[in-house]
Amino acid sequence: MKTFKLLLICNILLIAISCEKSIELGTEMGSALLIDERSPGFPSLDPGFSRGMGINNAGVMAGSTRKANGTVVTFKLSHHDLWLSDEEVKPNGLPEIRFTINDRGDVAGHKSVPGGITPVVWRDGECIELNVVAGYAYGEVFDINASGVMVGESLNGNFVTPTAMRATLFSEDGDGIDLGTLGGAKAYAGAINDHGIIVGGAENAQAQMHAFIYQDGVMTDIGTLGGTISNANAINNRGQVVGRSLLSNGAIRGFLYSDGLMSEIPTLGGASSVAFDINDRGEVVGFSRVASGQAHAFLYKDGVMQDLEIGGIDARAISINNRGDIIGHYTLADGSVHAFLWSNGEVITL
User: Fold this and answer.
1) 65 in a structural domain
2) 73 touches 49 (CB < 8 A)
3) Residue 330 in domain
4) Residue 129 confidence (pLDDT)
5) Cis peptide bond prior to 91, omega within 30° of 0
6) What's the confidence (pLDDT) of residue 92?
7) DSSP secondary structure string, 139-170?
8) pTM confidence score
C-alpha cells in the first residue's frame, strides 16, 4: 500500500506504563515521564509536533512526538504516564507512517536506521528489532493484535516511494514471512485482528492495488467501489473491513466491507473520504473533505457521518477502541501538528 496505502495512513494511550527510566515531575532521568495528573488529565506532548495513531481498549495511546532535543520519537500515553522511546523515528511521509498499540501495551512501528526504517516492537520499554523478508532492506509494522502478532511491509528503496514492497507477517524469531500478492509485484499488510485474519493492499496482474483479506494462507481480492484501486486499513474481530477505494469516476471514498459486500462511506460535503479504523461495534473513523476542501475527522456510526469538529485546517481520526474513544491529529495554520483524544464528545489536545 504505498500509492493509496495510507494517505493516511495511521484515546491517547491509557494503560499504565512500566518503565525503568523516567522523568518525574518534568525532570529528565531517562526516556519516560511520570507526571502528576493535571488538567485535562494527561501529561503534555510537544506543543508543536505530535501525531496520535493508536489507542487500545484500556485507553492507552501511541503515536509520535518531538523531544526537547528536536528528535522525533514514539510515545505511549495514559492518564498519569508518558513514555518516550530512546529510538528516533520518521516524523511522517506519504503515505504517513503509523504506530500501533495492543491491549497488553506493546507498541509497534519502526525506528530510523541509516538509509531507511526497520520494524520494531517496544515491550516494557525495550526496543526489539524484527527481521524483514529475506532479500529486503527495510520495513515497518502497521498493526499488532492482542496476542502480539504483527503485520506490515518489507521494502527496498525509499519508504515513501519503494522500489519493491511485500506484505509481511513479522516474527520475533527468524525472517518475516512474505504473504504474496494478487498477481502483481507489490503488497502491504495493513492490519490483523485477534483471530489472525489480515487485510491490506496488493497489486493484481494489471498492477492495480486492490484491498485483500488473507486467511488460512489464502489472499482474496475484495474488490473496489467501481474504480481501479482500493486498499484496506483495518479489520475488527467481526471480520468487518474498512479502507478506501476509487469510484468509477475517479473520486476517493472510504469503504466498509461486511458480509461480502463493499459499501461506500459518504463524505462531509466534500470530494472524498478515507476510513482508517473500525472497532468491534462497527464504528468507523477517518477523515473526509468538507465543501471548503479541508479535511475533517469523522465518526461513521449506524450509517450516519458525524463531524468530530476537532478544528484546525486538517484533522484526521486514526484509531478507535471498543469504548468509542478516538485518537488522531490535527494541523493548525502555523503548520504545527497536535495529537488529540475524542471521548464522549469532548476533545482533548494531548
Assistant:
1) yes
2) no
3) no
4) 98
5) no
6) 72
7) EEEEEE-TT--EEEEEEEE-SSSEEEEEEEEE
8) 0.88
Q: Are 4 and 247 in contact (CB under 8 A)?
A: no
Residue 67 included in any domain: yes
CA 171 to chain centre: 19
Least confident span in 37-46, 66-75, 112-121, 231-240: 37-46
Distance CA 24, CA 33 (A): 6
> Any idea what the CATH number is for the domain that residue 171 is in?
2.120.10
Span 302-321, pLDDT tens digits: 999 999 999 999 999 999 99
Residue 164 CA from chain centroid, whole number = 21
Query: Are the C-beta atoms of residues 42 and 63 closer than 8 Å to each other?
Result: no
pLDDT band at 2 (very low <50, low <70, confident <90, very high): very low
Counting the structural domains of the chain, the total is 1
Order of all β-strands in the sheet with 138-144? 138-144, 150-157, 162-170, 177-178
Q: Could you tell me if residue 12 is inside a domain?
A: no
- Is residue 291 left, alpha or beta, with left meaning phi > 0 and alpha meaning psi from -120 to 50? alpha
Residue-level pLDDT at 220: 98
- Name the average pLDDT for the chain: 88
Count of Cβ atoms closer than 10 Å to residue 126 Cβ:
10
pLDDT at 11 over 50: no
Q: How far apart are CA 80 and CA 208, in angstroms?
A: 46
Cβ(111)–Cβ(153) below 8 Å: no
Q: Which amino acid is present at 123?
A: R
Tell me the C-alpha distance between 167 and 177, whole Å. Answer: 8
From CA 240, how far away is CA 261, in angstroms rounded? 10
- The SS3 assignment for 230 reads strand
pLDDT at 148: 97
Domain encompassing residue 121? 32-241+250-260
Read off the DSSP letter of residue 182. Answer: B
Helix (H) or strand (E) holding 54: strand 50-55
**Residue 128 — left, alpha, or beta (φ > 0 → left; ψ -120 to 50 → alpha)?**
beta
Reported as a single tens digit per residue, the pLDDT across 159-199 is: 888 999 999 999 998 999 999 999 999 999 999 999 999 99
Q: State the average pLDDT over residues 291-307.
A: 97
